[in-house]
Design goal:
The protein is of the alpha/beta class. It has a domain of 190 residues. The chain has a 13-stranded mixed β-sheet with strand order 1-4-5-6-8-10-11-13-15-16-17-18-19. It has a two-stranded antiparallel sheet with strand order 2-3. Strand 2 and strand 3 form a beta hairpin. The longest helix is centred in the N-terminal third of the chain and has 14 residues. It starts with a helix and ends with a strand. The relative contact order is 0.05. InterPro entries: LRR_dom_sf (IPR032675).
């Protein structure tokens, strides 16, 4: 019997000899790192379940492998030739139900990414029989979701966000992405006060508004991270009034006009904010604009005059769209120089450790004023300038990192 057992072990495939704890590390390594796993035999965790019988049992019985899923548009060969994209809501719903069952009692993270219209009904009746089945699965299991990410065309986005916010009481992360951008969308996504008490992270890449029928908005009492793109400054300022514990903020505007900046607005204090990323660019990948500059281009730095950030540690600016007052010799005035940042630092009495100013339009004097108010910098990014590059080592002998942006070539060092 000993000899028989010895020969049996020798002929056993090596994969069966891997200890379960090592196999679990392999499973974790095989999961996608950049995005959620897709319900496909070419991607883990489904792919892992096809290796052998033992792995199939382990994979199916491991709930944390099934806590995330990506449901996206599929491509098929069209009858006329070529390929066509179709959102398969029924198949996605079936996959989502399988993931839910195998995840056991774990809360789940779901990303729905449809690049073409899913023909969802534009109605307040959220359980209509003709609504996409995948949304009905989410609505019918309201407490299972902690992370929901929607990337839908603008025709569907408003409806999808309304459904999600009304029926997901434990949501911690909510991402909204308008797949129709840069096309203009007249209907902004409306944030619902019902999610304000649970959200820790809010990512909005769409036109957005936050209003309540009785005009008494609910504070986002747990919101630590906020990222807003493709909307307007006044909507951002209105939202920031209700984010008392915000720590990381990113505001990215595209091709704003003069009317977009509210010149009269009360100062908003964000006592916990530590990192602030502010950008005003075009819609091109390098920050350029497809539109020629007009007299209505605005200086995004004016937004800083409405903020008080006493604990700000890192400020990052990317400005690729030039304000009218900067390039018009007829209207140029010393009062319109880039003094917004130095005023923010002085008003807030904050101490920056990281500062990045990426713009060919910033004048050297204003940059130096901001640097003199930030003696404890460890990281600095500045536009290419001989005077600045000569003076920086003397001003900051203990600087850990210096980055130079050369906007003419699009490179940086």
């Amino acid at each position: 019997m000993v000899d028989f057992q010895s020969r049996k072990v020798q002929h056993t495939s090596p994969i069966y000899l891997i200890p379960s704890d090592i196999a679990f590390h392999i499973f974790d390594y095989c999961l996608p790192q950049e995005e959620f796993p897709r319900p496909s035999i070419r991607s883990a965790p489904l792919q892992l379940s096809l290796v052998c019988q033992s792995w199939r049992k382990w994979v199916i019985a491991t709930p944390w492998l099934w806590r995330k899923i990506l449901l996206c548009t599929r491509e098929f060969e069209s009858p006329e030739g070529g390929r066509m994209s179709i959102p398969e809501s029924s198949l996605d719903a079936m996959a989502l139900e399988v993931w839910m069952k195998r995840a056991s009692a774990l809360t789940m993270s779901v990303q729905i990414r449809y690049t073409i219209a899913a023909s969802v009904p534009h109605t307040t009746h959220i359980l209509e029989t003709d609504s996409p089945r995948v949304f009905r699965v989410i609505v019918e299991n309201p407490t299972r979701w902690k992370d929901l990410r929607l990337c839908l065309p603008s025709a569907d986005l408003y409806w999808g966000c309304t459904v999600i916010q009304r029926n997901v009481p434990n949501l911690e992360l909510f991402e909204v992405n308008d797949a129709s951008i840069p096309a203009f969308n007249e209907t902004p996504v409306r944030l619902d006060p019902r999610v304000a008490g649970t959200l820790c992270t809010l990512l909005i890449h769409a036109s957005v508004t936050y209003k309540h029928p009785d005009a008494s908005c609910t504070p986002f009492v747990r919101l630590r991270t906020l990222s807003v793109k493709h909307t307007y400054p006044w909507e951002c300022l209105h939202l920031l009034k209700y984010c008392p514990v915000l720590e990381d903020l990113s505001l990215h505007f595209h091709d704003l006009t003069e009317k977009a900046i509210p010149f009269v607005y009360p100062t908003i204090t964000l006592p916990s904010l530590q990192n602030f990323y502010l950008a005003h660019t075009g819609t091109l990948e390098n920050g350029g604009s497809v539109y020629p500059q007009t007299p209505y281009d605005v200086e995004i730095g004016q937004l800083l005059d409405h903020l008080n950030l006493p604990n700000l540690r890192g400020f990052y600016l990317w400005m690729a769209v030039q304000g009218f007052a900067r390039y018009s010799s007829d209207y140029y005035s010393d009062e319109l120089e880039w003094d917004y940042l130095s005023r923010l630092i002085t008003r807030s009495n904050c101490s920056l450790s990281k500062l990045e100013l990426r713009s060919p339009y910033l004048d050297t004097t204003s940059i130096m004023n901001s640097l003199r108010l930030s003696p404890h910098l460890s990281y600095l990014g500045i536009p290419a300038d001989e005077d600045l590059e000569r003076d920086i080592p003397q001003m900051f002998p203990n600087l850990d990192s210096l980055r130079i942006f050369n906007e003419d070539t699009g490179s940086n060092d």
